[in-house]
Amino acid sequence: MLRPLLLAMIMLLTTLWSSLNHAESTSANSMPVIAAASDLSYALVKVSNQFTNETGQRVRISFGSSGNLKRLIEQGAPFELFMSADEDYVFQLAKQGLTADQGQVYALGRLALFAPNNSTLAKHLSFAALPGLLTEGEVRKFAIANPRHAPYGRAAREALINLKLWQQIEPSLVFGENASQTTLFAASGSTQGAIIPHSLALTPSVSEKGAFHLIDENLHNPLRQRMVLLKDASETAQQFYVYLQTAAAREIMREYGFTVSGEM
Predict the structure, then answer these.
(1) 3-class SS at 257?
(2) Per the structure, how many domains does the chain have?
(3) What is the 3-state secondary structure of 127-195?
(4) Residue 127, in any domain of the structure
(5) 24-55: per-residue pLDDT in tens?
(6) 104 and 116 in one domain?
(7) What's 190's domain CATH number?
């Protein structure tokens, strides 16, 4: 009698364990994934944590260059909200019928000239000093995000062209896959300078490793950052989209140097 009873208990426990694992997996899979430009790496994590504290709902965030994220969405990646650093990518997805609408501008981004503490550029932090430092070999590597798919890289190239520095600096350029990688190159001292998002330059982990100053926004086209819900976005994704437009979320964005809706 004991053996059949023992077998029955084992089978019951196995079934319960399987059900619990399935429930846990289902819960994880139901958490919406947000595709976000890498200049949001710090600001959006803080916003999402605050969203969770206030609502009990959670989201997962996948950071990358806006162009690469757009391509993944076109290929069917299961994102539910796209936060692009270039609004044109949102408009292109909307034309393909992949979004709920044309979304909302959530911020204007700014560029910063950054130099690590061990670089001579940090002591003479200006574009005016760059030609001489390049000629003298004091700046051998200079990082920007890849202009092919990273809006901050495209804006950096525009600024350098308008400053008439592009031809001289081009042989020294190192391209980051996205804005975060570009920032890492410079903050680690792998390059002697970089053009990075102001939002990343402001973070303690970066600012303590170098110096930066804001780049004149008239040197490049505006970095109008637009977000949009994708087709069939879940209720939690919709709630997060609405939360991003609240005063609490906007205050965090301001903290990281963004100009937010209503101030543009």
Answers:
(1) coil
(2) 2
(3) HHHHHHHHHCCCCCCEEEECCCCCHHHHHHHHHHHHCCCHHHHHHHEEEECCHHHHHHHHHCCCCCEEE
(4) yes
(5) 333 445 799 999 999 999 999 999 999 999 99
(6) no
(7) 3.40.190.10
